[in-house]
Amino acid sequence: MRDRADFERYVEQRSARLLRAAYLLCRDWATAEDLTQTALAKAWLAWRRVGDHPDAYVYRILVNTHNSWWRRMWRREVATGELPDLTAPGVEDTLDDRDVLRAALATLPPKMRAVLVLRYFEDLSDAEIAAILGCSEVTVRSQASRALAKLRVDTAMDWSTR
Fold first, then answer.
1. Residue 61 and residue 42 in contact, taking contact as beta carbons nearer than 8 Å
2. Which run of H or of E encompasses 22?
3. Which residues contact residue 76 at a Cβ distance below 8 angstroms, ignoring those fewer than 6 apart?
4. With pLDDT > 70 as the criterion, what percentage of the chain qualifies?
5. How far apart are CA 58 and CA 134, in angstroms?
6. Which residues contact residue 143 at a Cβ distance below 8 angstroms, ignoring those fewer than 6 apart?
7. What distance in Å separates the CA atoms of residue 132 and residue 126, rounded to the nearest whole number?
8. DSSP assignment, residue 1?
9. Please, which of 38, 49, 78, 124 could form a disulfide with 128 given CB 3.0 to 4.6 Å?
10. 112 pLDDT higher than 50
């Protein structure tokens, strides 16, 4: 993958997944769009060095950029407004479950959150996650285990009361 056409194909094929991963990391669609755009811009600058399998490289850029923004406590305006009427039956429960999951993910430190997002939402292997985060596979497994244990004891994740 060394030319502009390859990069454009990559963006067309992977941008939705990158955006979803970015959203799960930062929990805000506008910030996720900025994060995805920034990661892809950085990837474009290094595209000749990326190689034939760019996912790990681009996910690493995504996670590192998010961590950099988080460390600087970079914040943007949060859009507010009225929510649309929910007409489909059961939508409220699904939205409540999503809100609980997002709130629970928000309680985790950035590295634990990144491990869970990459493992369970992006379906990456421990080796791929380790390469993205620049750590060992053992660290990935321990971070995932600790994150899941933290979520289990969190009362917000007590599904039995729902």
1. yes
2. helix 4-26
3. 28, 30, 31, 34
4. 78
5. 13
6. 111, 112, 115
7. 10
8. -
9. 124
10. yes
